[in-house]
């Protein structure tokens, strides 16, 4: 709960100091808990994965305290402070149903690797197809240097971005525009019935325009 009280800007001059002091108190409590359990269980202490997780939490807590007190390596101290957030995971051991769901998630990670492999394969196939179909398409408002199908890498990044739902429909609308749509927008492209496509000179002029 105390981790939820960190705000910016701090409401009072002593707010952050109070939070740091409270955090140090919890670090002492966690260290005392570790010492008592280790004294009681000795070698059996390491058999429980949650106990090993507690040790990691204690180490991160005290490293953060020491770095903050030394006044050096502040960036490293902030990184370790972020790792302390995982101390919230200690509550899993007290809720059997929640613990089962969490363990099911952990056990499913290897299976998710197979799913990720299939998704990467699909992205690769559609990236190759995108380069074949849209590499010469006219750029638009969203279909630009940041999202295009000019090469495999750009196509892969564009499709990965679209798979997250980021502006995929804008890219779709840009790719569905006709020459007349660009003409109305002031980005002139002539319909092919207005010129002789067999004439290389005319094609060079239109290609430069479009």
List keywords for this structure.
210 residues; mainly alpha; 8 helices; 0% strand; elongated
Task: Present the secondary structure layout.
Blueprint: H1 15-41, H2 49-70, H3 74-83, H4 96-134, H5 152-163, H6 168-175, H7 179-184, H8 200-209
Structure at a glance:
The relative contact order is 0.05. The protein contains eight helices and no strands.
Structural shape: elongated
- Give the tally of β-strands: 0
Mean pLDDT over the residues:
78
Helix content: 55-70%
Cα(first) to Cα(last) distance is 60 Å
The residue ranges in which pLDDT falls below 50 over 5 or more consecutive positions are none
H/E element string?
HHHHHHHH
> With helices defined by DSSP (H or I, 4 residues minimum), what is the helix count?
8
Sheet with the most strands? none
Alpha carbon gyration radius: 29 Å
Write up what this structure looks like.
- 64% of the residues lie in helices and 0% in strands.
- By secondary structure, the protein is an all-alpha fold.
- Helix 2 (49-70) packs antiparallel against helix 3 (74-83) and helix 4 crosses helix 5.
- The radius of gyration is 29 Å and the shape is elongated.
């Amino acid at each position: 709960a105390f981790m939820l009280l960190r705000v910016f800007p701090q409401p009072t001059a002593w707010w952050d100091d109070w939070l740091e002091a409270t955090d140090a108190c919890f670090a002492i409590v966690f260290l005392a808990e570790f010492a008592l359990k280790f004294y009681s269980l000795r070698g059996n202490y390491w058999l429980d994965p949650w106990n090993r997780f507690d040790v990691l939490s204690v180490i991160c807590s005290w490293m953060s305290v020491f770095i903050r007190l030394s006044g050096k390596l502040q960036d490293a101290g902030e990184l370790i402070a972020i790792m302390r957030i995982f101390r919230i995971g200690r509550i899993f051991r007290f809720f059997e149903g929640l613990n089962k769901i969490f363990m099911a998630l952990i056990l499913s990670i290897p299976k998710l690797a197979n799913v990720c492999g299939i998704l990467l394969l699909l992205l690769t196939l559609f990236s190759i197809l995108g380069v074949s179909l849209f590499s010469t398409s006219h750029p638009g408002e969203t279909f630009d240097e940041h999202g295009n199908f000019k090469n495999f890498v750009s196509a892969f990044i564009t499709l990965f971005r679209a798979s997250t739902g980021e502006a995929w429909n804008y890219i779709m609308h840009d790719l569905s525009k006709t020459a007349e749509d660009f003409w109305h927008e002031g980005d002139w492209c002539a319909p092919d019935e207005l010129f002789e496509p067999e004439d290389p000179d005319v094609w060079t002029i239109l290609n430069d325009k479009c």
